[in-house]
Structures
1.
Amino acid sequence: MVGRFFNEAQAATRIEHPGIVEVFDFGHAPDGRAYLVMELLRGESLAQRLRRVGRIAPEPALRLLQQMASALAAAHHVGIVHRDLKPDNVFISPDPDIAGGERAKLLDFGIAKISETLMAGARQTRAGAIMGTPAYMAPEQCLGAGGVDHRADLYALGCIAFEMLCGRPPFAEQGLGELLQAHMSKEPPRLTSIDPSLPPGLEAHVARLLRKSPDAGPSRAQLAPMSCSNSLPSSNRLAPSASLKELAS
């Protein structure tokens, strides 16, 4: 538990981005207890918002998703994969200086995978270890954590996008085995099969994020442009070209 605690601190301090919760200090108190000093956030988690409102309209959903994608790009740029991206780990805070008046911040890098370059000499997660939250895990993550890279975060972003727009994750199987198998082999429902009013272009973007094969995914360089564009990841778990207005209409 303490290792996970400090892993979060180490990961967060390596990423300089307004969409990543800031860690000011961490260590051990004189009595031996571990501590972590983080910025104080006001607002609510995305999970709390979804419980409160059910689902989110396309334009504000896309705005939040763009912010999450930008923060992920910053993490991936320094070799950090979140591996547990879910609504509970996204916090929405008021921010009058940006469009929409609120900012999404990513929390809990406790099981983040840090690249071998950054973790030289440290023990890596062993192959076959399943880490994450099953409702948001990429197919390759369901098989074990050893080979998971940044593309697993993009799949999780697709699951979050689906839930924001439809009010439920793409797969709702009750048993753990059935849920993992669904991620690995079952095609997700089309957004418009749940809400016919959702834009077809938006449906296509979310479907691409939820592609089964990580080999179709983007590089960090392809994901990075999302930080300066008004769009969602588009083709094959990859970077965007359409504007927020185009996707939401």
2.
Amino acid sequence: MRAPPCTSTWPRASVRSHDGTLYFLYATGTADLTGVWRLRPSGRAERSAALLAAGLPNGLALEARTRTLYVTDSTLGTVWRVPTGGGTAEAWSTDPALAPAGFLGANGLKIHNGAVWATNLDKGTVVRVSILADGRSGTARVTATGLTGIDDFAFTGRGDQIIAVLDTVNEVALVRPDGTHTIVLTAAHGLQGPTSIALRGATVYIPSAAYLTAKDPNLRSPSISPIQPSRSASAILSRRLSRISMRRPRWAGSGRSREQRTPR
């Protein structure tokens, strides 16, 4: 992939398909490079779909069954739909609930239970847009509010419960299916501008970008004890997240890549 003719390159989210192909977003502000890219296992990178240079492609999710990629555009307030095989991007949803309110709108993105779920950073909301039988978008519904600066999120495996990073206030929130939420991690745990989150097994991974402080960007990885089925999943996860000590992998913030430090 050649270097763009400007310095404002912005690689964004990525997802991997079952065949090992890595799809990722690239935002440069130029029409020749901005879009959805794919990196095949062979190592060859190519742009599979162009996106508008005026936009900011931000979140990316793959629906494997239909071989469809969904992309949030934070400045245009749009969810794009792109075939994994490449082609023309389609503005799948431009619902007002996705629009920015001064800075950035639609942001984090996941596919869950027959719907596209997206966050809106400016409005502090989580938005659910159902995927209709013919593939078109259904009506958007706001499922949670009051989440200042919400960015990325992950489903916890407990129905529609999510755990989300609140970028601008350095917090992590546990959001219940009824829309209520509890703050479970804060700047006191070392968070500085957390922009993404991933949950694997009993471990949550939270990269802190430190955009505003430009000091000690890091990766925090708290562990969660197994949840007892006889008790409230939301309450237990909330308490355990708020109690845990944050640890940083030895390679995080060390100046060396993860690949160089990953135990064998």
3.
Amino acid sequence: MNRDNRAPVRREQAGYSGGSRNGAAARPKRMFGRPDWWVWIPILGILEAAYVLATLAASTLTAGVLIAIGVVLVIADCWFNR
């Protein structure tokens, strides 16, 4: 209320700042986010299979493909969490 006529004071709203609630400048959207903890469960299984294939079966090509699949899974999870 103001002192003169006891009516509620209407405040001017701050200018539009790109969707931020507190009036601060909005940050640009990141390209990748943080990976979730659950993505590491299949990655550990894939890495273990790659280790077994590389050491016992002597199939380094298949182990490399499995490692590449694990990297793609982590990158995809980071992309979805942005």
